Amino acid sequence: MSTADADPRVPGRDYGEVMAASRYTYLGPEGTFTEAALRTLPEAATRELVPMVSVPAALDAVRAGEAAGALVPIENSVEGGVSATVDELASGRPLMIYREVLLPIAFALLVRPGTSLDSVKTVTGHPVAQPQVRGWLSRHLPDAQWESAASNADGARLVQEGRFDAAFAGEFAAATYGLEPLVTDIHDAENAATRFVLVGRPARPAAPTGADKTSVVLWLREDHPGALLELLQEYATCGVNMMRIESRPTGQGIGRYCFSVDCEGHIADRRVGEALMGLKRLCSGVRFLGSYPRADEVRPTVRAGTTDEDFLGAADWLTRCLDGRGDDLRS
Amino acid sequence: MSTADADPRVPGRDYGEVMAASRYTYLGPEGTFTEAALRTLPEAATRELVPMVSVPAALDAVRAGEAAGALVPIENSVEGGVSATVDELASGRPLMIYREVLLPIAFALLVRPGTSLDSVKTVTGHPVAQPQVRGWLSRHLPDAQWESAASNADGARLVQEGRFDAAFAGEFAAATYGLEPLVTDIHDAENAATRFVLVGRPARPAAPTGADKTSVVLWLREDHPGALLELLQEYATCGVNMMRIESRPTGQGIGRYCFSVDCEGHIADRRVGEALMGLKRLCSGVRFLGSYPRADEVRPTVRAGTTDEDFLGAADWLTRCLDGRGDDLRS
Amino acid sequence: MSTADADPRVPGRDYGEVMAASRYTYLGPEGTFTEAALRTLPEAATRELVPMVSVPAALDAVRAGEAAGALVPIENSVEGGVSATVDELASGRPLMIYREVLLPIAFALLVRPGTSLDSVKTVTGHPVAQPQVRGWLSRHLPDAQWESAASNADGARLVQEGRFDAAFAGEFAAATYGLEPLVTDIHDAENAATRFVLVGRPARPAAPTGADKTSVVLWLREDHPGALLELLQEYATCGVNMMRIESRPTGQGIGRYCFSVDCEGHIADRRVGEALMGLKRLCSGVRFLGSYPRADEVRPTVRAGTTDEDFLGAADWLTRCLDGRGDDLRS
Amino acid sequence: MSTADADPRVPGRDYGEVMAASRYTYLGPEGTFTEAALRTLPEAATRELVPMVSVPAALDAVRAGEAAGALVPIENSVEGGVSATVDELASGRPLMIYREVLLPIAFALLVRPGTSLDSVKTVTGHPVAQPQVRGWLSRHLPDAQWESAASNADGARLVQEGRFDAAFAGEFAAATYGLEPLVTDIHDAENAATRFVLVGRPARPAAPTGADKTSVVLWLREDHPGALLELLQEYATCGVNMMRIESRPTGQGIGRYCFSVDCEGHIADRRVGEALMGLKRLCSGVRFLGSYPRADEVRPTVRAGTTDEDFLGAADWLTRCLDGRGDDLRS
Hints:
homotetramer, alpha/beta, D-Maltodextrin-Binding Protein, domain 2, five-stranded mixed beta sheet, 29% helix, amino-acid biosynthesis (chains A, B, C, D), EC 4.2.1.51 (chains A, B, C, D), lyase (chains A, B, C, D)
C-alpha cells in the first residue's frame, strides 16, 4: 500500500472552496472499476478526479467541503465498499445521492507482456473479486494459487512488480501498469453489474425525469414483530414499488437494524411523497437520501388510484366533504 | 294498517319550508322504539315529530325538503328497517348523519288490563322482535302461538282490538293503546341495543368533540380478490379503528357489494382525513355519510405516529426534504 | 294471516322420521319466490314441500328432525328473511348448507281478471319488494298508493279478496289466487337475483365438483382493531378468494359482530382447508356451514403456489427438512 | 500474507474422514476474533482447529468432507466476511447452521512492549475494524496514520515486525505476537457484537431447546411489487417473529435479490413449520439453513392462536368438519 492511500488527502493539494467545486473524489486507487464508472459521467471530463483510500474518506471529503461529489460503489461491488457506503450514508453528517452509474462486471486477466496462460501459477485481485471469477479459475487455471490484494488495481501493480503472475482487474487498468489483458470479459454470473452513486451535500433534488429512484434510510420506532411489515405496507398502500431493501446493523447491538430502501419514483411524485410522510410518522427516524434519475431509465408502472391526479382529486374531495359538498361519483 | 301509513305524507299538513325546518320524521307508527329514541334528543321537544310508514319514506321527506331530519334505526334493530336504512343512505340523493342514539332493547308484554299470564294463548309483535324474546317465550309461555304484526306498535293495537292476548312492545306504548305492561325488561340477549341515526341533507359536519365516529359507503374499484383487504389496510395504515363493516348488495347482481363502514374519529382528524383520501383513491366510489358524536362518548385510542401533530410534522418534513433541508432526528 | 302460518307445524301431519326424510320445509306461504326456487331442484318433485311461517320455523323443523331439509333465502331477497337466515345459521343447533339456488328477481303485477292498468289505485307486496319496483311504480303508476303485505303471496290473496287493486308477486302465484299477470318481468335493477340455500343437519359435505363454495361463520377472538384484517389476510395468504362477507351483530351488544363469509373452493381443497385451520386458530369461534356446488358453476382461479400439489409438495419438503434432506430446487 | 493463507488446505495434513470428524475450520488467521469465538464452544477443546484464508475456503472444507464444521462470522463483524458467509450459505452445495456464538466487539491497542501512547504514529488493523475505532482514534490519536492490514491478526504481526507502531486486534492476540495491550475495551458503539455460526453438512436439526432460531434463504417467485410483503405476511400470519432480514444480490443482475432471514423458533414448532411450508409455496426457492439454539437464550413470545396445541386443535377440527362433525365451541 502506498503512503498516498494512508492519508485520505493527497498531500500538496489545495483544498480551497473554489477548487472543491471542481473536484470529485472516488474509491481508489486509480485504475479501479470505480474510476471507470466515474469516467462515464460527462462532467467527469471537467473535474479533478481524486482517488481516496476508502469509502469513508471519499465521503468525508465531501462532508468537509473539500470536494463537490464522491463516486462510491453501493451495490454488488466487485471491489467491496458496499456496506461501508450504505453505513456511511446512514450515519454522520447527512449526504445525498444525485446520480447513479451501472457498470457491467467483467474482469480481464492482466499479465506482463509475453506471459502465456500455461505459465500462470499465482493470481491476485481484491478478495471481493474472487467469488466473481472462481468458476472461471476452476475451469482454466485449476492449479493456480490465489492471494488477495488490497484492490484490483493494487493486484495489477503487484504483477507489474513480479510478485504474482496475473491479476484480475478491469481491462482499462492494463495500460496504467504496463500489463496486457491475456483474457477479457471474465465473469461467472450473467448480467452481473456494480451500481455506483454520486454523492454530494444535501440540496434540492434534481427535477423529476419520469424514470427516477428515491432512497431513504429507515429506523424502526420499536423492534415489535410487525414493524417491518408495516413499513413495507406503507409503500404498497401508496402504490410505490420497492426496488431494494437492505437491513444494516445500527451499531446499537446485535438485532438492532436500520433499513436502506430504494423505491421507484421521485419525492415530487405525490405517491412517493405520501409514502415518505407515512414512513416519517411510522418510523423513529427517516433519512432522505435523494431522488435521482435511474441509470436503467425504466419508467415505473403507476397503479390505478395512485397517479398525481388521483392524489389531488382525493384531497379536493376531502375539502369538499369538510364543507358538506362531497360527492360519490364513481370512476 | 291505517291509511296514514299508506301515504308517507300525513294529509292536510303544510309542507312549506318554514315548517320543514321544525319537523323531524321517524320510522313509525307512534309508540315504537324509534319514537322513544327520538324523544331522547333534547331538540325533539321543540320539533313536530312525524311518523312515516317506512325508512325510505322518512328519508325521502328529508330529501324533498319536507323535514329537517329523520330518525331511523341503523343497527341491530328490534323493528326492522336496518337494511333499508343502510341501502337508502348508500343510494339516491345524498344524505348525511348528524347524530346517533343508542336505546337498550327491552320489551314489555302488553295486555289488556286484567289479563293474567296464564290466560295468554296468542302473542304478537314485529317479526324482528321474535328472536329477541324467543327464549323468554319458551320459558314462560311455551304453548302460546306467535303471529307477526306489521310493527310492535301495531301489535299493541291488535291486542287493544282483542285479536291477540298480548303484544311485545316498548313499555312506553302501553298508555297509547290502553294496555298495561304485564312483564317488563324482557330481552334474551344481555346488553342488546338498537342504534338509531338522525339524518339530514348534506352540510358541514359538526365540530369534533374528541369522541366522534365517521361513516362512509365504499364501492370497490373492481371485484379483485384482495380489494377488501386493501380497503381495510387503508384504515389500518392511518391508525384508524374500524367499528363496523357491513356488506350490502349493490343491486347490480349477486356477488356485487358495497360496504357500509363506521370508524372512530372525525373527518377533521388528520388520520381520518388521510384514510378517507386513501379510500377515495382506492375505491370506484366513496360516499361520505358524516362525522358525528358517538353516543357512547368513548374517546379513541390514537396510535403512536397518527396524531394530528405527527401528520403535520411529516408534511413539514416532506416540504423540507423537497428543499434539501430534510433531517432525520429520531423521535 | 292464516292459522297455518301461526303454527310452524301443519296440524294433523305425521312427523315421524320416515316422513321427515321425504319432507322439505321452506319459507312460505305457497306461491312465493322461495317455493319457486325450491321447485327448480330435481329432488323437490319427490318430496313433500311444507311452507313455514318464518325462516326460524323452517330451520327448526330440520333441527327437530321433522324435515330433511329447508330452503330459505340468504342473500338479496325480495321477500325478506335474509338476516334471519344468516343469524339462524350462526346460532342455535348447528346446521349445514348442501345446495344453493339462484333465482332472477322479476315481479309480475297481479290483478283480478279484467283490471286495466289505469284503474289500479292501490298496490301491495312484501316491504322488501318495494325498493325493487319503486322505479317502475314511479314511471307507470305514479299515483298508486302502496301498502305492505306480510308476504308477496299474501299480497296476492288480499287482491283476490278485493282489498287492493294489484299485487307485486311472482308470475307463478297468479293461478293460485285466481289472478292474472297484467305486467311481467318488472325489476328496477338489472341482473338482480335472490340466492337461496338448502339447509340440513350436519353431515359429510358432498364431494367437490371443481366449482364449489364454502361458508363459515367467524367470531373474532377480541375486538382489537386489526382482527378483521388478520382474518381476511388468512384467506389471502392461502390464495382463497372471498365471495361475500357480512357482519352480523352477535346479540352481545352494539359493536360486537360475527362475520358470515363465503369463499371459493371446497373444504377438501388444500388451500381452503389451510385457510379454515388458520381461521380456527385466529378466531374465538368458527362454525363450518358447508361446502357445496356453486349455482353459477364458475370454477375458481387458483393462484400459483396454492394448488393441492403445492400444499402437498410443501408438506413433503418440510418432512425432508426435519430429516436433514431439504433441498431448494427452484420452481 | 503467508503461504499457508494462500492454500486453504494446510500442507502435510491428513484429510481422511476419521480426522475430518474431529476438525473444525474457521476464518483465520490465528489470533482473530473468530478463533476467540470458536474457543468459547466446549467441544472446541477436543477438536483440531484449522484457520482458513477465507470464508469460502472454510466452508468448502466442510463441503468436501475435510472438516466436520466451520466457524464463520455472519453478522456485524469487525473482520469482514459477513457478506461472503451469507452468500456462500445461499449458493453451492447446501450447508446447515448448528450453533451460533455472540462475541462482544472490543479491541485492544497492541504495541511492542515499552511503547507509550504518545509515540504511536502509525496504526493498522482490518479495514472493517476502522469504523469501530474511528471515534476512539480521533479522540486519543488524532494524528496517527491508519493503514489497513489483511486481518486484525495480520496487523499484529506487522507491529511485531516493526512496520507499524500499533495494531487494533483482540486482546487475546497479544501473546501470540509478543505484544502487549496498551489500551483495552476499545469500541465506539455500545453493545456492539459479532455473531458467528457453526456450519456443517445437512443433517437432522438438533432438538428444540425452547429458545431457538431458524434460518432460511428465500428466492422470490417473481419480482412483483408485493412479493416481499407477502413473504413477511407469511411469517406474521403464523405468529412467527422475524429477527433479521437481509437482501443479497443473486448474481443474476442488479435488482434481483434473495433474502436471508432468521426467525424465532424451531422448525419442529408447528407455527414455524407452517410458515416454512407457506414460504415454500410462495417462493421460487427456499433453502433451509437450520434450527439451532439462540446464543442469547431468549425464549420467544408465542401469540394466542399459534401454539402447537392451537395448530393440532385446528387440524383435528378440520378432520371433524370433513366428517360432518365440526363444532364451533368458542375459546
